[in-house]
Structures are given as C-alpha cells and as structure tokens.
Amino acid sequence: MSLKLYFSPGACSFVPHSLLQVTGASFEPIMVKLHKGEQNGDEYKAINPRGQVPVLIDNGQVITQILAIILYLDQKFPACQFLPTEPVARAKAIETLAWMNNTIHPTFTHIFMPHKFSDQADVQANLKVFNTQIYKGLLSELEALVQSSTSPWLFGDNIGPVDAYALTLTRWGSIAGIDPSTYPALWAHVQKVSANEAISVVIERERLQLNLYKPS
C-alpha cells in the first residue's frame, strides 16, 4: 500500500487521519502508542528522528509536520477541496492552521505535559493553571471564528483541516477541565464535524470520546 499514516489516538494526527478518510483513498493507518514511548524506539526513530506524529509516507517519501502533510494532501486530492483555491481565502485558512499549530497546540502541551518545561512540581502546577486560563481565551477565539463563518464548513463548502483541528483542540480543552458547552457555536460545530461519515470512522478507529469534561 503506497499511503501510510502514522498516528496516535487523540493527537493532532487526527487531522490528516480524518482528511485521508474523507478522500476515500486506500491507506494504511499505523498506530503509535505515545503513552508507551513507541515514538522513541529505534524502529520509529528510523522513520522520524524527531519522534513525533503524524508521519505520512507516500510511495516511500516521508513527510512530517502536520502543516506540511495537510498541504500535501490538499494538492494530492484536489477534488476534495480541503483548502480554498482563491489566494486570499487560502492564505487565511493556512494562517488559521498555523495559529492552531503554533499557539493553541503548545498551550495545551503546557497543561497536559508541564514536565516538558520544568522538573519542579510547583512550577508544573502553576504552568497548568496559568495555561488553562490562556486556553480558555483561545477557545473563545475559535468560537468567534465559527460564529463569523458564512460557509457550511470553516473556510469552504467541504469539510477540511480547520474543522478537524477545531474538533481536536476542543476535545483537548475538555481534557483540561474546560466545559465545551461554554462555547455553544464551537461545540455545535465540533459535533457536526464528528457526525460526518468519514470523520466518525476515524473517531471509532481511534476510540475517542468527544467530551472528557468532568464537573468538579
């Protein structure tokens, strides 16, 4: 099989995983169990020395980093129209994806894995509290993005990477103790994304629960 995607359940690899399923193309999804450290093993490091997911392999060509993979899939499957073709609209969609990846995503990392940024327990606790508040504000920006959208999906008539990433980031918020219903437009959109036939297959394959929020 020429197309392979290395993913970890619930990680940002959900985005290209979803896009590949939407294409209807034949591909091999290969699970990497991050909680077991499989990303640090010699076998996986031979594929991606950085030990990260996702990784896309197409006819032996290895592509890493979520933005690069999204852009590659957009060009490989143009009929899916994952991203707009009009220059300004396309730039705005990529701008949003970059913000999701370089701002919202690492903010969650500070909440979920504060040990990456300090070996001191008190500092780790402060990082979690501080960044949870920042994350709430970032979800508010996503809420505003959904509210301002005039198309069926974010940035187009077809479901795309911004929609899948919005689902992932909202789900992460629930892991951080943020009630997704606090953002009604975003939460409704996330549920709409999850109801898509192809996306629902990926959710089942990754065995994901959409809302992990537990009231204190």
Order of strands, main sheet, comes to 2-1-3-4
* N-C termini distance: 47 Å
**Cα-based radius of gyration, to the nearest Å:** 17 Å
Content of β-strand: 5-15%
CATH architectural category of the largest domain: Up-down Bundle
- Output mean pLDDT: 96
User: Topology as H/E string?
Assistant: EHEHEEHHHHHH
Low-pLDDT runs: none
What does this structure look like?
The protein is α+β, with helices and mostly antiparallel strands and 216 residues long. The protein folds into 2 domains: 3-80, Glutaredoxin, CATH 3.40.30.10; 87-206, Glutathione S-transferase Yfyf (Class Pi), Chain A, domain 2 (Up-down Bundle), CATH 1.20.1050.10. Helices cover 54% and strands 8% of the residues. It contains 8 helices and 4 strands. It has a 4-stranded mixed β-sheet with strand order 2-1-3-4, with helices on one face. Helix 1 (14-23) runs antiparallel to helix 6 (161-175) and helix 1 (14-23) packs across helix 8 (197-206). It is globular, with a radius of gyration of 17 Å. The mean pLDDT is 96.
